[in-house]
Amino acid sequence: MESTYQEYDYSFNTCLLGDSNVGKTSLMSRFVDDKFTDEFNKTIFTGIGVRTLNINNNTVKLRIWDHAGQERFRPITRSAFRNIPDVIIVYDVTNENSFLNVDYWIQDLDRYTSYNDCKMLVGNKCDLESERQVSYEDGEKKAKQHGMKFREATAKSSESVDTIFRELASQLLLLYSDTKITKETDKTTAKSLSEENEIIKRATCF
Q1: Which end of the chain is more exposed for a tag (fewer CB within 10 A), N or C?
Q2: What is the pTM for the complete model shown?
Q3: Contacts of 111 (CB under 8 A, 6+ apart)
């Protein structure tokens, strides 16, 4: 990881949306902590992870909001992504229903947000080729229909995980590079990102 201290030029928030058990938390954990577990623990309300990246000589802090996929948490999820300009919708390539439900997540975005500058569709668990129910071509087609970028990935081996978040951060930089830079550098009081993530994890575990 490029940086362990809270020093950055730009700070962006992104949402992970999608059905329960598609691997949103696994993607975030792999990106933020480079960790993976096969154990399934449902996200309650929201999980959050933070990591900084070096993009075109800019230090970018990316805060990732991992939202619960269960229907009963939809009102909370809708209020959370209302003002976030970039969203990643995740489905499981071995679960066709999670792919079909992408349309519902996109409808929610269109209905409850006034803008989403960056949207990406991610097919997770592409390492499970023998169990695949959704082809790469179908995922790519759906992304094009909705004007979204598309990637397949797997949190298990980390394939394409970094690429997803780097592409998103790069796109956000292009959109917001002319806005005022918020520089927060305080070596005497700054917490390391690992400490910040631990605080966040404790605050969001139920």
Answers
A1: C
A2: 0.77
A3: none
